[in-house]
Amino acid sequence: MPRIMARAWGFGLAFVAAAALALALRPELRLAARAAWNDPRLLPAFANDARIRYEVEAQACAEAVANLAPLAIAQIESAHGRPFARPPVVGVYASFENYANANGMDDPGIAAVTRAGAALLSPTLCGEERDRLRGVLTHELSHVHLSSWRPLGAPRPPQWFTEGLAVMASNGGGAEGVSDDEATQAIRDGYRVVLDGRRWIDFARLGFEREPPREPTKNALTQRQRLAYKQAGMFVGWLRMRDETAFLRLLRALEAGEAFEPSFESAFGESAPSLWRRFVSGLSQQSSAG
Ligand SMILES: [Zn+2]
User: Fold this and answer.
1) How far apart are CA 142 and CA 237, in angstroms?
2) Given Cys at both, which of 102, 169, 183, 184 links 230, Cβ 3.0 to 4.6 Å?
3) 145 and 163 both lie in a single domain
4) What is the CA radius of gyration of the chain?
5) In whole angstroms, what is the distance from residue 88 CA to residue 149 CA?
6) CA dist 63 → 59, 67, 150, 269 (Å)
7) Strand order of the sheet with strand 118-121?
């Protein structure tokens, strides 16, 4: 073998060995590699609609998703004030195992995940949790919309904002079972979600100023997460009602890849925590007035 080729081989082998070592050492890299290998775009398109990708065993579910998709897409484009940058992709799974491999979290228990610009739907949304399909699909499309515009590697907005936006834009998708009144009462009683600047956390572990009481008949983590989602969604809805121009200016800035905090302040003239305090005190005053 000529020396130059031997050297190329040596580099190639070293690269493969380094990649294998990195995958073995870093579980999140391993999950990401497995998710890329199981990307929903590799699944067949449903009835020539390239937006819906499905496992053939999930034919009926893909059909339900295809029927809901046009309205859900229109709803998100209207709430975000802009079309998708490119057609959104939705993956529909029949197998919990394949879904977990594709969702990058190795967790079949999450109802849906948006990953690499595609929404992945758990089989539960056409099974036990069929009544959540429309809301969760619409919620995920909000994430897909934002990521369709954001440049690769742009700073991620805090999760309370992206989840609140998705809940607001989907009329409560992802926060099922918590009414506006219940979330408002929780805020008045001091069970307020803490607007956490972290970009990627387990939302069920978000802090509350006071730990909300548990209803023993319901799953504690689900309850907590949905209350947090609902409060974030109400706050984002309030921001939008308060000043729609500022709200849309913030979205356009985030879509352009700008950082969240300065974009928020330049749009609203105030920081998010400061407006959150106004939102909370407004709700509390309504309480004492009524
Ligand atoms: Zn979400």
Assistant:
1) 14
2) 183
3) no
4) 21
5) 11
6) 6, 6, 30, 45
7) 45-46, 49-54, 89-92, 118-121, 112-115
Report the predicted TM-score, pTM, of the whole model to 2 decimal places.
Answer: 0.88
Is a pLDDT exceeding 90 seen at residue 258? yes
Instruction: Classify residue 249 as exposed, middle or buried by CB count within 10 Å of its CB (0-12, 13-18, 19+).
Output: middle
Domain count, the chain: 2
Say how far apart CA 206 and CA 164 lie, in whole Å: 13
With respect to residue 223, please indicate whether it lies within any of the assigned structural domains: yes
What is the Å distance from ligand 1's center to 165 Cα?
9
pLDDT of 202: 62
The CA distance from 183 to 165, in Å, is: 16
In the reported structure, the alpha carbon of residue 271 is separated from the centroid of ligand 1 by a whole-number distance in angstroms of 23
Q: Do 236 and 251 belong to one domain?
A: yes
The alpha carbon of 227 and the centre of ligand 1 are apart by a number of angstroms equal to 13
What residues have a C-beta under 5 A from ligand 1, the ion? 163, 166
Domain boundary among 149, 169, 198: 149
- CA 156 to centroid of ligand 1, rounded, Å: 14
Residues 139, 249 within the same domain: no
Cα diameter, the chain:
87
User: Cα(13) to centroid of ligand 1, in Å?
Assistant: 40
For 257, other C-beta atoms within 10 Å of its C-beta total: 13
For residues 159 and 137, state if they share a domain: no
- pLDDT tens track for 126-157: 999 999 999 999 999 999 999 999 999 999 99
Neighbours of 47 (CB within 10 A): 11
Residue 24 Cα, ligand 1 centroid: separation in angstroms? 29
Tokens representing 94 are: 């029949």
